[in-house]
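PROTOCOL LOG
Step 1. Enter all chains and additional molecules of the complex.
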Amino acid sequence: MGNMKIKAKVKGDTLKCKVQAKHIMLPYDAAKKKGVDANFITHIIGKIGDRVVYEASTSQFLSKNPIFKFEAKAEGVKKGDKLEMTWTDLSGKTVTEAKKVKGL
Amino acid sequence: MMERRKFLGLGLAAVALVPASLSAVDFRKEKPDAFTAHNVADSIKALYGDIKPEANENLTVKAPDIASNGGAIPVTIKSSLDLKSLAIFQDANPESAVAVFTIPAGAIVNYMTKIKMKGSGEITIIAEGKDGKFYKASKKLEVALGGCEG
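Step 2. Run joint prediction.
Step 3. Record the structure below.
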């Protein structure tokens, strides 16, 4: 735990989500200078149950500890549902965390 | 008959992959060239092919005119178009592609993420509509302090 901050809230008929992943997001250039391997999040996906609400293939140029803010239609989101975020980085590490959707 | 068999095979393959990737499209695996291209035009070509995107008032990108810190530039993309995918490019860093979003059904395109830029440049958004058309939006900005040093 503690690898991600997740906030998900339903307001009216909109589901509003904000996710911050804790990640160094080290690009190739900077990694070369430091003499270490580059590492950054390459793929992030957000799901509520089986429904995918957010998906992105990302590169080295997202900021350190990148923030992802997104919206989706709240239709079908029930009380007690969780927003589950999963990211994968270049080293192959995968982190999944979930948080209950608020506002229902 | 043949097609049905193929279809079943595909289904099985997909089931075998779950839950590693549910309906996931990893553009890094599918279009690796798009992420290593050194300029925006090449990158767009690698991702979507030879396209002629049009500007559309229903696709907008918002970023500060002058970013004091190039290490975290908030970029907001809004669109009311029916989109399939969306990509962010910029021309300040050694490689152009920043992120490619797959727009799932029921998503509202009001996305914000923070990106890094080494210097002043232009952010280009390319959106792929479900109607097969491509749209674009761009935003020029100045970066006071480059942010590619991690």
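Step 4. Note key features.
Helices of chain B lie at 2-17, 27-30, 32-36, 40-48.
Chain B has one domain: 25-143.
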